[in-house]
Amino acid sequence: MNVHLIAAGKFHDIDFARLELLKLLAEQPQIRTSVASDYADLANLARADMLITYTCDLMPADDAQVAALDTFLRRGGRWLALHGTNAVLRFGADGVVDTPDLVPAFSQLLGTRFAGHPPIAPFKVFVTRGDHMMTQGLRDFRVEDELYLTHRTADIDVLLHTSFTGTCDEFRDADWDEPQVPVLYERSVGKGAILYLTLGHCRGHYDLRPLTSFWPHPQRCAWNYPIFHELLRRGIGWGLANARDG
Question: Where is the ThuA-like domain (predicted)?
Answer without folding.
Answer: 21-207
